[in-house]
Sequence to fold (104 residues):
Amino acid sequence: MRLLAKNAVLGLALVAPPILAEVVATFREQAPGAGVNLLLYFPVDFGLIACALAAFMCLNAYELRQRPAGILLGAFAGLPVAAVWFGFAFLVVFQVHLWRGGQM
Fold:
């Protein structure tokens, strides 16, 4: 349960910057899409996703290091967690983008 909570906190921390970028663009009167660009294309294509993948793999490997083959198991456990995080982050950021008046 503790590992699940740590993954959830890390996931929320990683999805917060694109959401905030999308919302703050409203107050700066910029075109919508800043959060989607941050999630997918800034600073390099799929950079945040690669960072999230590495962070989830490291977190899970660190937490499962006491078990036999735990580091490898934890690293592989980070892959589906990162995939679920990306699906959640994409839906949330894109929903905020559409809510602000952006287009598909």
